[in-house]
Amino acid sequence: VLGLIMARSPAKKKDRGSQRGHDENEVQQSKSPAEFFAENQAIAGFDNMGKSLYTTVRELIENSLDACESVNVLPDIQLNIEEMSQSQFNVLRGVTVKKLGNNETGTNAPVPDDSDAMTTTQGQKSSNKSNETKKSNRSAESYFLISVRDNGCGMAHDAIPNLLGRVLSGSKYGVRQTRGKFGLGAKMALIWSKKSTGVPIKIKTSHFGASDHKRHESGDDNRFGQEISTCVLDIDIYKNRPRVIEHTKVPNKEGWVGTLFEVLIAGNWTTYKSRIVQYLQQLAIITPYAKLEMRYSNRFDAKKDMAIRYDRRSEQMPPPAREVKHHPSSVNNLLVQQLLERSKCKTILKFLSTDLSSVTPALAKRIIDELDDDLDESMSPADVNDKQITRIVQLLRGSDQFKSPDGSCLSPLGEYNLNLGIRKVIEPEVVATARDRPGAYEGHPFIVEAAVSLGGKGAKEGITVVRFANRIPLLFEAGADVATRVAQSKIKWSSYKIDHKRDKIGVFVSIVSTKVPFKGTGKEYIGDDITEIQLSVKRALQSCCQQLRTHLAKRNALRDQRERRSRLVKYIPDVSRSIFGILDTMRKRKLDEMNGGSTSLSPKKRLGRSQNTPIRSEDDVDKKNAGIIEKLEKDIITEKIIESHLLDAIESHGAIDGQSASGTGTESSSGKGRFGDGRRNNTSVVVAQPLFLSPLYHLPDYGGDVRHPLFTFRPFKNLSL
């Protein structure tokens, strides 16, 4: 319960002596969490009408993703947004609203003369029209019926009211990677619905529980619950508890799967349409194993209807994240006190080695010994006082004897899925992905995955940064984010043959952690003040750029080869014509010689002959000339054949250059080619396929590693790892 001081005027004056220094105009009041977030909705992302619509859509979709991934089902999510005007909303609700009348003219009201009336009409005609337009725009609110359907695990019948109608209650408060930011989710959508429309939410769900899992494992292929639950739910803001309007369940004869969530809220589609579309696009990148559909319909203007669909590209889902215990370097006084109160251990030694991670019994005993006589190994956790808690916390946080938390509990997307997601949505010319080694800050593990793409659908010149935290898109406050800062100021793009001003560069950074260090109340960006995360992002991006540099070098070499070939091919007709003209002139001169002409060289050609040039006999020259003349007369040598030979020479030289530039082998096809039958030789280039290897830093070293300059291959002893 949040305690706040509220001021009000006193009903009765009291004796100052009895107040003991307290102001008689102040009274102590308390507010429930639901009431606090209803009054401070901007903290949860409900800043305005448009942002409230966007946040509602995002929270419902992410809840659906969690429901599917919890039972290892490939998500199929359908989002429907139906916009209606205020009058249509009133008809739907059965509400009749009359406008307040204006009694501006009366019997004693002065009547202006004709000249004044004409002046007023001409001077205020345009301003009155614009004012009326602005007033109508401000008064006309839009309402949206939002429904989200998924194929996940559903919700248990008895748990629905508390899951959706009690703020700050949920199952995501442990130490593990989760999508949630505040633990509000659909509860804040219910609060906003109550504030903006007064309409309760409606849920239809079928829970796939433990008994259904056993039935499925025994051979039943049906993945649906035995019952369908329907719940119409409201919330008591002041008591922070659900108010159930309807709650029924019927046998699931139709094979219903998943959950259907419906909510009616006020919003603004015009200002946040692009944000919702952008969110779905980026969500398709970070969840390529999901099928996403959105349909928007407008009841008063059907021309604005639209639909978006992202089909599933991958069937490989990341493994679920695991909950872990608190690391010693992440604790504080309050947390240790809570752990001591909830601990089931009978001794403090057992508590330290059991309820905390990376603390072995030997280390726990050393910690107790460091505390001198304040603690005893057999002391009960309930007997530890505040001073002892402070000493324990200082010792835990100040020691470097504990092993850093690894990333085995996290669930990153994986380079394979990230590559597929980018190729599916952006369709770039080239993309490189990388994952940095797991790191830790303040006792919380994190993993950074990154990708850099060039070109693509709708890409703009310069650097475009796309950010994800725990596999959810971050759309706002990008300028202060660590990914943006590193991409724009910490990476020397020119070193990797990339022009960061003219090339269309896409930078994708995904960070997963048990505690994402968001900044600001909206939790929309990660600051660059955490050195460990900043360096990890930089290393991942540099690894991507290194891959691109090799590719770009090959691409530039092939581009230069194509340009050189184009220039040479351009002059083939002229060169062929000139060579054939020279040969034909030789043929004509030989005919003249045979008819009695001179066969000696001209004086200029005699003088031009080098002293070192060997003089061939006239018989050799005559034989060669006779062979050429014979081919010319038989049309074995023509201008077209010379052109063909030149083109084949260029292609042959280009194939050799292409092989050296791309580093791949070429295999000539069978046949004589253009030299023999007038057809060009075909070459098939073996294109290398990318191979994605997941780095397994957390696995033990059994020996027998196969080491290579680019990777280390470690065999498994237990395939279940």
Can you walk through the features of this model?
By secondary structure, this protein is an alpha+beta fold. The chain contains 21 helices and 22 strands. Strand 14 (462-469) and strand 15 form a beta hairpin.
Give the helices and strands, then pairings.
Elements lengths: L1 E6 L8 H4 L6 E6 L1 H7 L9 H21 L6 E9 L1 H8 L20 H26 L2 E9 L9 H6 L20 H11 L4 E6 L3 H8 L9 E10 L4 E11 L6 E10 L1 H18 L4 E8 L7 E5 L22 H10 L5 H7 L6 H10 L15 H13 L16 H11 L4 E6 L3 E3 L2 E11 L7 E8 L2 E3 L7 H9 L13 E10 L4 E2 L5 E2 L4 H40 L1 H23 L8 H6 L9 H16 L5 H24 L3 E3 L5 H4 L5 E3 L20 E2 L4 E2 L8
Parallel strand pairs: 3-9, 14-16
Antiparallel strand pairs: 1-2, 3-4, 4-8, 5-6, 5-8, 6-7, 9-10, 11-13, 12-13, 13-16, 14-15, 17-18, 19-20, 21-22
Please give a quick description of this structure.
The protein is α+β, with helices and mostly antiparallel strands and 721 residues long. The chain has 21 helices and 22 strands. Strands 7-6-5-8-4-3-9-10 form an eight-stranded mixed sheet.
N- to C-terminal distance: 44 Å
The major pleated sheet works out as: 8 strands, mixed
Classify the secondary structure makeup into a structural class: alpha+beta
Shape: extended
Query: Beta-strand percentage?
Result: 15-25%
Q: What's the oligomerization state?
A: single chain
The average pLDDT score comes to: 80
Share in helix: 25-40%
* Count of discrete alpha- or pi-helical segments spanning 4 or more residues: 21
Spatial order of strands in the largest sheet: 7-6-5-8-4-3-9-10
Instruction: Compute the number of strand runs.
Output: 22
User: Compute the gyration radius: what is it?
Assistant: 39 Å
The residue ranges in which pLDDT falls below 50 over 5 or more consecutive positions are 1-21, 104-123, 132-139, 603-611, 664-687
